Automatic annotation (TrEMBL):
One Pfam family in the UniProt entry: Exo_endo_phos2
UniProt KW Zinc-finger keyword: no
Classification of source organism: Eukaryota, Fungi, Dikarya, Ascomycota, Pezizomycotina
Family matches, as SMART domains: Jacalin (SM00915)
GO biological process: phosphatidylinositol dephosphorylation
Keywords: Endonuclease, Hydrolase, Nuclease
Chloroplast in keyword set: no
Domain of life of the source: Eukaryota
Protein name according to UniProt: Endonuclease/Exonuclease/phosphatase
Record-annotated Jacalin-type lectin domain positions: 248-384
MF-aspect GO terms: endonuclease activity; phosphatase activity
Amino acid sequence: MQEDFNYHADIYSTNKHPHRTPTSGGVPFGSGLNTLSNFEYLDFRRIKWATCSDASSADCLTPKGFTFMRVALSPQTSLQDNSTAVYADFYNLHADAGTEPQDNDARQSNINQVLSYLNTWSTGNPVFIFGDFNSRYSRTVDTAIRNLLAAGFSDPWVELQRDGVVPTAESLCSNPSTTDYCETVDKVFYRSSPLLKLTATEYTYASKLFLQADGKSVLSDHNPVQANFTWSSASQLRQSPLWGGPHGTWFSDVPSLSSLVNQKIKTSSINLRGSARVDSVGLTLSTGQTFKHGANGGSLSTLTLGADEFWTQAKLCQAQRSGRTRIFYIRATTSSGRSIATGVEQQNAAVDCRTYDAPAGWQIVGVLGQDGDEVDQLGFVYAPR
């Protein structure tokens, strides 16, 4: 949702979604951006635009910008299988409005800010970007949304309603819209990843579902956009659930591993640093590729694997330190039953531990998560043996 200001309490009073973002406030304090979801999410953030313009309207009146959340498309914890998970990163935005030169510049800056952010925080992940872009392809000087296409994102409206051809002629929608062929300023973009393939299956303006009781009057000055997708896990790389806290900087071995999937790879050594907590996690592949995440504190422990030995299990324990959840302990176990560990495996109510087993026929070949001076959050990347 965008422009969720004065009617937030009314909307939430009857809404049944199990996962809902808390309001950031009304005008002029809040961004008006909120998300209602059937899927669990983590690491929710609000980011204000670095540039705004009041040339056409009062775009600088509220802290407009975008939100970020990592959504678990499959349960993070399952009685059947707690070792694999499927995540996608969701960005909801409200870009600068207007058509004056200053507005176009601000909107261009807005989209570039999102791209810069996701290049850091969504590396290796599938991504959805949606919201009120205040932008149309038919505006030749309005190039903001074309930046997303150039960055490898797809627009399901262009794919499914425009036969893959980006329009240049204006085709404005009525409200409620009687066709899905016309163009609105509200957009959806998506990008698959080496972990997950996304396919757009439907794009429509669900205007008839958002009418008042008389069946004619609209509930919003924008046509509601509905985009449906299917997803499938990749055949060469998968991941475990994430454990730990949303602190530090995001890292992922997925982009590097995706370039190696046509080779026979395995972990040849596991390299851990730690003392009271986990300072770094690293590994070396049979190709010679080396990964390391975290810092250089603690003591280094290394386990060299045999030719027919694979990293198949990992145990993680998380706990609080200075108000932040961090990884306090990791134990890596191989297919031969050998193990290496670092940190402190505390046994008390304040410590929460999880054990992840690579699916049958798979192995751990990389990691992802968030780090700084220590490892704050961690997950594992699987590849076939």
